[in-house]
Specification:
This protein is an alpha+beta fold.
Length: 244
């Protein structure tokens, strides 16, 4: 039997070349997934997913560019872009939420205390929604007099962190939070109910619906008075004390 050997150096010989195997980078897939998820979770106020998309996308794009057997660089870059967009939107949403909601929510009660101390009727009314914003000067000044006669000159207000875990009285279309009001060195508890949008126009604007200074068994001074009332507000005593 004759045996033949093939010399690879012979003219016309073409060695068999195996096709190059490529794969899609896992980092690229993760970058794209995180970029999409970051936009979804943005409504929950969580920009960390978008930030992770930026980091993973950047690493994936660099690694894929160095290895020709790995593809998916376009996916990594697209995921990176989605992450950057998500981070930018998170900054915009955070700034809007702070300036339009959180900052006024923490500022308004102290501004109300300053207005009472200065007897500034217009500034006090401007902090409220109707009917507080439309109360007569006499009603507002009478409330100022009651507060100062009962507790002294007000200084400022701070959110009562110790009572945050306690269920606050429910109030429709408004949030009711416990506050501490500082008067001449003494702290007086109370509640402030706030609305975040104008019920008629839909404008996003934080305003006070009701302000209650004091807590039982002491006097509770609430502004504005009941809707439709034209008389100045009167202090409300604890039911057990009023019956004794």
């Amino acid at each position: 039997m004759l045996e033949y050997t093939i010399d690879p150096n012979q003219p016309g010989f073409a060695p068999e070349v195996s096709p190059e195997v490529t794969r899609t980078s896992t980092l690229a897939v993760w970058a794209l997934s995180l970029g999409i998820a970051g936009l979804v979770f943005l409504c929950c106020g969580c920009p960390l997913v978008s930030l992770a998309a930026v980091v993973v996308g950047a690493i994936g794009a660099l690694c894929i560019g160095r290895d020709p057997s790995v593809k998916g660089r376009g996916l990594a870059i697209f995921g990176l872009v989605l992450g950057v967009v998500g981070c930018a939107l998170a900054v915009v949403v955070g700034w809007f939420g702070w300036t339009k909601i959180y900052a006024p929510m923490f500022r308004l009660p102290s501004e109300a205390m300053s207005a009472i101390a200065a007897d500034d009727v217009d500034a006090f009314r401007d902090l409220f929604t109707p009917p507080g914003s439309t109360a007569d000067d006499e009603v507002v000044l009478a409330y100022f007099a009651l507060v100062e006669a009962e507790y002294g000159t007000p200084s400022h207000a701070a959110l009562d962190q110790q009572r945050q875990s306690i269920a606050t009285p429910a109030l429709s279309e408004a949030i009711n939070l416990p506050w501490l009001f500082v008067f001449d060195g003494q702290n007086v508890g109370g509640y402030v109910a706030m609305e975040f949008a104008n019920q008629r126009t839909g404008e996003l604007r934080v305003r006070i619906r009701s302000l209650s200074i004091g807590s039982p068994p002491g006097a509770v001074l609430t502004f504005p008075p009941e809707s439709g009332s034209t008389s100045p507000p009167a202090p409300t005593d604890h039911p057990e004390q009023s019956g004794s």
